[in-house]
Amino acid sequence: MCAISSFEFKVSIVIPVFNAEKFIERAVESALSQAETAEVILVEDGSEDDSYEVCQSLNENYERVQLYIHNGHINKGAGATRNLGIQKACFDYIAFLDADDFYLENRFKEAKKVLQSTADADGVYEAIGVHFESSSEKKIWINKKNKRLITTIEDGIDPDELFWEQSPIGSKGYTSLDGLTIKKESLKKVGVFNPSLRLHQDTELFMKLAMACNLYPGQVNKPVAMRGVHSDNRITKTRPVEDSITNYKKMLNSAYEWALANGYTKEAESLKYLIKYSRIHRTSAINYNRSLVNLKQYLKTLRETPTIALEGSFYINLLKFLLKYVWINVRK
């Protein structure tokens, strides 16, 4: 039974679990160590290993740990699994943690300050770091994936500008679910996660939140949580470029349809251009990313430039840099 005090900052931690038997206990204990954690909600997503048994043990040993499964104990994916956790949450604020990640000390210290001092704040985003389970994963992450050791927005951004400045529209970085603290009612306002997206549900959610809510920066210069990188998680997996672009385009389409349906016209226009671009471009991932940076500069002009006037110059310049990067690729 849910017992809520409106005078305290208490957080429901939602942890989706799939094939993470080695890491769940670490994640749960890091969440329970935070003074603001009112409950930890484990949603076991039909794992093929012993994750469910580990979750059962944690549920039995800790009063604040709750355990749920989908009907039939089937696998539904991270989006649907997090949605079930949100539905079951008893408290006004929600934070997320992947089962192979963990929180650092004072995870909610800055978030609590911002939320208590800023009347219109719906949520707070903060930085997360990387924890490598072995040296081989570190090599893949840095050398092959060209990833940073901290995931964050580069500097504090006004909530009204966040959609335009964060990835994938802007170039000032992106946020992670492990670093988000958000009002439960704000999540429901944007329709929570799209369960049809198997990848990039978090990116789509952040775009919707940036359009409809006021998200403020917390601790963005150093991590409040650590992402676990190991041989079994999707972060270290290499996918064909075509598959990556297809999944990305599906996410953009979902965000575009939501923006259009909810009256965010300029934001929908920017997403439309990004979708068209992903259909055209079929060169290497490196050149895709390089030319995407150029495209983002055009997207930012949508706030100031009438759509009709933009169309001609946009496609002329888009064609120019696409030809440039295709030519570079052909020469190689």
UniProtKB/TrEMBL annotation:
<protein>
    <submittedName>
        <fullName>Glycosyltransferase involved in cell wall bisynthesis</fullName>
    </submittedName>
</protein>
<dbReference type="InterPro" id="IPR001173">
    <property type="entry name" value="Glyco_trans_2-like"/>
</dbReference>
<feature type="domain" description="Glycosyltransferase 2-like">
    <location>
        <begin position="12"/>
        <end position="133"/>
    </location>
</feature>
<dbReference type="GO" id="GO:0016758">
    <property type="term" value="F:hexosyltransferase activity"/>
</dbReference>
<keyword id="KW-0808">Transferase</keyword>
<dbReference type="InterPro" id="IPR029044">
    <property type="entry name" value="Nucleotide-diphossugar_trans"/>
</dbReference>
<dbReference type="Pfam" id="PF00535">
    <property type="entry name" value="Glycos_transf_2"/>
</dbReference>
